Amino acid sequence: MWHKREMVVHESDPYNAEPPRNRLLAPLTDADSFYVRNHGPVPELSPDTWSVAVTGLVSEPVTLSLGQLQARFAQHTVLATMQCAGNRRSGFLPVRDIPGEDPWGPGATSTARWTGVRLGDVLRAAGVHDAARHVEFAAPEVSQLADPPQPYGGSVPLGKALADEVLLAWGMNGAPLPPVHGGPVRVVVPGYVGARSVKWVRRITVRADPSENYFQATAYRVLAPEEDPDAAGPGDGISLGPVALNCDILSPEPDERVGTGPVLVRGYAHAGDDRRVARVDVSGDGGRTWCRADLDAAPSPWAWQHWRATVELAGPGPHTLLARAWDSTGACQPESAAALWNPKGYVNNSWARVPVNPAAAAD
Ligand SMILES: Nc1nc2c(c(=O)[nH]1)N[C@H]1C(S)=C(S)[C@@H](COP(=O)(O)O)O[C@H]1N2
Ligand SMILES: [Mo]
User: Fold this and answer.
1) Is the distance from CB of 98 to CB of 90 less than 8 angstroms?
2) 260 alpha carbon to ligand 1 midpoint, in Å?
3) Which of 12, 174, 227, 259 is deepest in the core (most CB within 10 A)?
4) What is the pLDDT of residue 361?
5) How far is the CA of 180 from the centre of ligand 1 (A)?
6) Residue pair 83/104 in contact by the 8 Å Cβ criterion
7) Are strands 294-295 and 291-292 parallel, antiparallel or unpaired?
8) Contact predicate 140/42, CB 8 Å
9) Is the separation of the CB atoms in 111 and 303 below 8 Å?
10) Which of 221, 239, 257 represents a domain boundary (last residue)?
11) What pLDDT was estimated at residue 1?
């Protein structure tokens, strides 16, 4: 059974857990605090016997051991944020319940320094055919959550698969990739929903079409509010790829007593894929007035940015602190979770809301 210290554990089997809010204030997330999202058991794979097969629409199909990957291709390190499409799902639950899905808070998001080889280098060496449009990743662990039960998998468009930032990674923050995060080797697709960063990858198939795996064709899709998720089949709903603009407040904590006067508010913002965070606004008066947060420089084009702002709280409260990010396309996060609610609870990127100074309980 997997376990990390001090995590908010949503499920123990399969192990699904997120770090406490304050652990997300560091620019890099320790492997011990990095969120874990599993759909099945963590496979025990030895780096000595692990290999990955590269097949499908390629001229020279090949099977590569870890040693061969390391010997044949240049090593690269990318600092990147990973974000689950279910991040902040808990914000949807007051709108309408989402049975069967974990109530993730702000912590289904973490950032690490990933080391490996470029997937593009491996694909180019295998010789990608003209008809190729998508690259599929297959893992060995069978998920009972899939219908029918099947190994976890997914795909990304060929253009993204060939991009410099996409890695077959064996290192995390300078250490070997831990088994729970996909060791010996996982795919890392910066800027895309975490679901495409397939852990324990054993087969890479170049295809004309997206993967037919349950987690690509049926799950990780945004259904319309009135649709029945149990009746949804392959191709229904909006397939998720690039991460949506998002932010959350990391300090103060929800329901913290902060008193009146100036309060330091801190958080993260992440724009996803080729967009950048351009501005973050914070309000201490329910959105009547906003102040502009100081935004840290991005530690990498693929990583979140932290921000801070001092807001004045008028009177004892209760108050709700708000934050909203803008990206380099000029888009702003939507105001309400109610407008975004969907049956599987993906992509809650509504304004961050943290209540503080709760009313004293009546005796
Ligand atoms: N083989 C495999 N890969 C997987 C998953 C999984 O269950 N099995 N979960 C995916 C999802 S939904 C996310 S958000 C990320 C989480 O990676 P982490 O557990 O290292 O944080 O892994 C992705 N890759
Ligand atoms: Mo995810």
Assistant:
1) no
2) 42
3) 227
4) 61
5) 9
6) no
7) unpaired
8) no
9) yes
10) 239
11) 63
Report the nearest atom of ligand 1 relative to the CA of 200: 1
Domain count across the chain: 2
> Smallest Cα–Cα separation from 31: which of 219, 169, 171?
171
- Residues 12-30, buried b or exposed e (16+ Cβ, 10 A)? eebbbbbbebebbeeeebe
Tokens standing for 88? 């902040």
Task: Specify the 3-state DSSP secondary structure of 256.
Answer: coil
Q: What is the pTM of this model?
A: 0.97
Tokens 């890479």, residue located: 204
The H or E element containing residue 262 is strand 261-270
Q: Which of 111, 140, 136 is nearest to 200 (CA)?
A: 140
What spacing in Å lies between the alpha carbon of 311 and ligand 1's midpoint? 37
Residues near ion ligand 2 (Cβ under 5 Å): 37, 84, 194-195
Q: Which domain holds residue 274?
A: 246-360
State the pLDDT confidence band at 360, using cuts at 50, 70 and 90: confident
Of 222, 239, 256, at which residue does a domain stop? Answer: 239
The candidate with the shortest Cα–Cα distance to 248, out of 343, 110, 114, 341, is 110
